Amino acid sequence: MAAKQSSKDQIPAYPLWITLPYSLFVAVLTPFYWLRYGPGNFLWFSDIALFAVLIALWTGNRLLYSTMAVGVLPLELAWYIDFFTGGRLLGLAAYMFDPKEPVHMRILSGFHLFMPVLIVFMLIRQGYDRRAFKAQTAFAWGVLLASYWLTRREANINWVHGPGPEAQKVLPPRTYLGLYMVLLPVVVYLPVHLVLKRRFRP
């Protein structure tokens, strides 16, 4: 039995044994994250991808999950590396080993482990939409601006104030943000797009 599909391209729907547990997980995670971290936390690219993948599972929307593949797979790979080195290499997954962080929150944050695998599975099953690079670039610019203007500087959502947990102090804040918005698509998204374009069918 599979989730209903709505694509005009007759994209195969995903089985309910995938969509239902994933949907339940997102439904449980959302209030816990909201109460502990606040609504601004949902602007993190990985958190956005969590919801985008949910929609893609139910609708079979290729552009949606392909866009998330361009945007989050390289970041999730970095999270993987940091997690399996105990959070000491990059600091991205350090909170997973912080005894001050509630156990249930660390368990919920385990979505970083399975969501990239699910995205790759979707790429294998349905292919890669070549429009994803442009879509992700435009989407990321909007998210970065929202992260800059709508969230606390201390939170440094999506590193809009500096790479890593701390805000950078070398460049004026808006100069850094502008450079970041230019370099992110060129240095990160474009290479990923080219790899996905080569490895997965259109």
UniProtKB/TrEMBL annotation:
Keyword Transmembrane found: yes
Transmembrane segments: 12-35, 41-65, 77-97, 103-124, 131-150, 177-196
Keyword RNA-binding tagged: no
Top-rank taxon: Bacteria
This protein's UniProt keywords: Membrane, Transmembrane, Transmembrane helix
Protein name per the record: Membrane-associated protein
Organism: Mesorhizobium sp. WSM2240
